[in-house]
Sequence to fold (216 residues):
Amino acid sequence: MVSSPDAVPTTTTLSAENLDKRFSGPRLFSGLSFTASSGLVAVSGRNGSGKTTLLKILAGLVRPSSGRVSLLRDGAPLTDRERRLSVGWAGPDLAFYGELTGEENLRFFRKANSLPSEPRDIQDRLRDTGLSDDAIGRRVEEYSTGMVQRLRIAFARLFDPGILLLDEPTAGLDAQGREMVRRLVEESRREGTVVVASNDERDFADPDQRIALGER
Fold:
């Protein structure tokens, strides 16, 4: 989305400090730290190494066993609401209301956060991911796997977040869908931070930082 010419540029900084996570078995990772204010952060690793868990911790959906994640805007801590709107997340288990259309889902989430939900703006956001006008008006329960993935990407960018967290963003997408993700990641990394977790190296175009999980 194009920012208003009167908007004051801001910088959102994401910091992870000594993150440690374990469930019932061995630790997934420990002592993990990084800081990013812009650019692309690539998270790689074998299956089960903790990529999805790490992104959920960064998104505030899962708590670390120890360590902390902090978000600052121009050096100042964010309120809880600001944190929710400053981080966009998309992952394989992100689900939508099947009886609602793609447009209705995004309008619902905008309204739930007391933000405007102009139809043209919502439709443009969906078109940005390659969803057709027909798909925009169809119930999500009728969507294909690739269409749902495009909707997930649109949801992650719904609040124009400074931090974008994408878990396996090209899963289920065709060549055009992969190009769409590449384009949106390039746009977003210029204006903020994008963290991409994937087993596919094609999802990482010259990352500014790399986090390799599961390496000994």
